Amino acid sequence: MRGHGFLLANYVPGNSPIHRAPLALKFLLVFGCGLASFIIVDWRVSLAVLGGLTGLFLLTGAGLKRLWAAVRPLAAVLLVIGLFQWWQLGAPTGARIVLNILVCVVAASLLTATTPVQRLLDGVVKAATPFRRFGADPERFALTIGIMLRSIPYIAGTFADVRDSARARGLERNPRALILPVFITSVAFARQTGEALAARGLGDAEDEAPGRV
Amino acid sequence: MPAVTFDQVTVAVETDHAPEPKVLLNGVNLRLEEKRIGVIGANGSGKSTLLRLVNGLVQPTAGTVSVDGDDTVRAVRKVRRNVGFVFTDPLSQLVMPTGREDVELSLRRSVKNGAERRNQAEAALERLGLLHLADQSIYQLSGGERQLMALAAVLAVNPAVLVLDEPSTLLDLRNRQLLRRTLSGLDQQIIMSTHDLDLALEMDRVLVIEQGEVAFDGGPAEAVAAYRALCVDSLQAQGPASR
Known about the structure:
The structure holds two protein chains of two kinds.
Chain A: H1 17-20, H2 23-39, H3 43-59, H4 63-89, H5 91-114, H6 117-128, H7 138-168, H8 175-199
Helix pairs in contact in A: 2-5, 3-5, 4-5, 6-7, 7-8
Chain B: E1 4-13, E2 22-32, E3 36-41, H1 47-55, E4 62-67, E5 70-71, H2 76-82, E6 83-86, H3 99-107, H4 114-127, H5 143-155, E7 161-165, H6 173-184, E8 189-193, H7 197-200, E9 205-210, E10 213-218, H8 220-238
Parallel strand pairs in B: 3-8, 3-9, 6-7, 7-8
Antiparallel strand pairs in B: 1-2, 1-4, 4-5, 9-10
Helix pairs in contact in B: 3-4, 3-5, 4-5, 5-6
């Protein structure tokens, strides 16, 4: 499978104030930005927030190139959304919606670029521990997040491979030739991942038996 | 060495196109105690099913499989702690973005302290000479490096038995040699299916699987000869190739 784009920046070791900031604070920042994207109604405020977050990202030492790599896979979708909203609701609304999506992506990248995945998972386990009394398994929460982080680039890579195969057969305009193989490959990947996790004894409840053939 | 025992094991699956279940393995009896055991046979002969039974990924339709006396159905969690499994495609096995994170994931259940987990993960990577690749994206690794990384993640929890399902199929010659060298230095009991007959010749005992049954069980040279003979018979039965 060829190179994989990723919607969030991978961890970059460092000692910046953002790296040293408590994980809970970084979680709050992401949560706050997600919430703000519903509240902010002025595109200039969105632009200012995006500028601030980009500044924080650069402070981590991860660099603009990494930030662009995280945003690039979304560029075409954002363009379509922006143009559609401009046509439907006007330029200020279109700009605000696009900028708010970018705010969320940059905030999440800030978290993933400055936090090792294992620390992130430890944080998820800690946050989910109170739900243990309701039967939740905090390790499963963490495992789910980990698999999500791993699956996004895999599926993006699958889409790129399938698009190339469709092009080679002159079927690039046929949505079925693009969507169906990605769907089938994704389901197969999910099954393989489940099997690999089971083989390693990860994600099993204490008394859970494996599935039949 | 732990003893892996198959007692009258049959595995059958329902299929859409046939009224009767398809038999993948039929009445297999084995006691595997040697350190290096190879499993060879044609595609679809039942090799993978045989290996998956050892880890409890597949359950027998009839009969029992046990590892050191532990039934793979009733004591599946204990069995999985003792039996590591390496798949053909490491990309379906590595579930974290980097090798270090994947090895740490293996250790999450057994080592709760984060710093201790990191130390143990580094030690596991160091043992296979992979520490310098620990923080690279798994997509940036070569096929051989990925396969070794998957192996490191499995070995991190120190299983007594290591099962490998065609681990060299996707590798080039250099990476195959690298994998062979690594496997030869391990203390674990190894049960491995392979199409690499040179690799099979290095085993202590080799099983030839044909249409869900053990067609030959013995020394590697005799087993490879028996497998070649089976292939010749099968090709002759098909008749000449069409032009």
